[in-house]
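Exercise: predict the fold of this chain.
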Amino acid sequence: MRGDAAVTHGIQADDESKARRDGVVAPPGGVNFERRWWILAVLGVAWLMVILDGSVVNIALPSAQADLGFSNAQRQWVVTGYALAFGSLLLLGGRFGDRVGHKHALVVGLVGFAVMSALGGAATGFPMLVAARALQGVFAAALAPALLALLTTTFTNPKERGQAFAIYGAIGAGGGGVGMLLGGVLTTYASWRWTLLINVFFAVAAVAGALAWIRTDRSGRHDPLDMRGAVLATAGLFCLVFGLSRADTDGWTASSTLLLLVAGILVLAVFVVDQSRSRLPLLPPHILHSRVRGGANVAMLTTNAGAFGLYLYLAYYLQDTLGYSALATGLAFLPMVAAMIITSQVANRVLLARIGPKIVIPTGMGLAAVGMFMLSTVTTTSGYAPHILPSLIVVGLGFGLSLSPGFATGTLGLQRHEAGIGSATIQTSQQIGGAVGTALLNTLAASAASTYLQHHATDTKLASLAGYTATFLAAAILFAAGAIVVALLIPKGSLATVAAAARTRLDPAGPIPEIGDGE
């Protein structure tokens, strides 16, 4: 038995040594190595909760509006309030996890998210619902970076890391479609309130698992928080996301839109300059200077911007043009979810290690572009099986090859004490991409519908179709353009080669202490 243990220890040491050489994460050996697969289950449940919340609430909005009696103009704030808090606080949330420990950040985020979900589910009016949604976003900003950071630091063996990210990415890729189905079921057979209350069950299960299996990871670093950087980043991201939401409702040329967008860009520019000069920056510049992680961030931004056109406007097309119910609409997305799950497994477990992200991610984005172009040809009489289903499968294959590998590539080479802020950076790209997609594609849809009505008979159904197909085509262009940029940024080579290129340098203040195992 002792000899077998020695052999096992030697194999593990070799794997960890290889992981360190490959730049997967340093220092080697996750503090949660022995319980890693149970921890993956916990992280998966929490991540599914966050993903579901983004789509399940959208399906329930019409019912919530009818029940609470708020206007169409107010309705956007149920979504925007959450997005503003989540998107603007992600960098701060990532650094919060790096300082207090990712386990603590995870538990705080889960408990807060559950409490705010229960508050939203019990809302008696519009102000209470929006306040709950905004506070959900605050706790999600602490929760989401901790999830990805724990995944990154727990799985250091290159082969197992690919498997873990494949599962995590499959949850992220398929969660949106499952959320639409779940939202349809809950709204149809229960109440819109359950689209929020269901988060409590996910959170309780995840908190129990986190307390049982995840060890406390103490940073060992007690540097003062870069408050100036935190204020600049939060203010800049807030203005940018808020400005994009105003563009959605007021138009791109409205003074409120322009003022917010310009302010956001200027404040973020000041933030970048400040971080390059700061001794202890909130966002170390080398995290984004890497072509590998920079390419992954571009992939996540453009893919999420284009994905908005699929999820929202295809749902509108299926319900308003073809007459599908909310439940049937959710079911219609399931083949795409299945395709995403399959290709995300193949991408992370096999393709990334062999041919590298430079080929895998742009190929996925290219497939998504083809699928969206196919959707742009639908008509008012298109059938699901001959027209919509093939497009969804192609898009699903593309998302599986781009989203899951994008997560894995965006966290390559991070030092353990940077895992939280590095994870928050790629999730910020996701949120900004979603905000850009919301504003840009909504504007294009409205413009295309208006143009159609000006040149044709006042057939609102055909005008709406013109708006939908315009967004599908625009999303295809976004995917194609993003694929080109990502292919130019990410260097050639297998995952090991690319990971070595992404390896970050140590903080100039000195070596980074190891993280203790904790209790």
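Check your answer against the key: Confidence is low (pLDDT under 50) at residues 1-29, 504-519.
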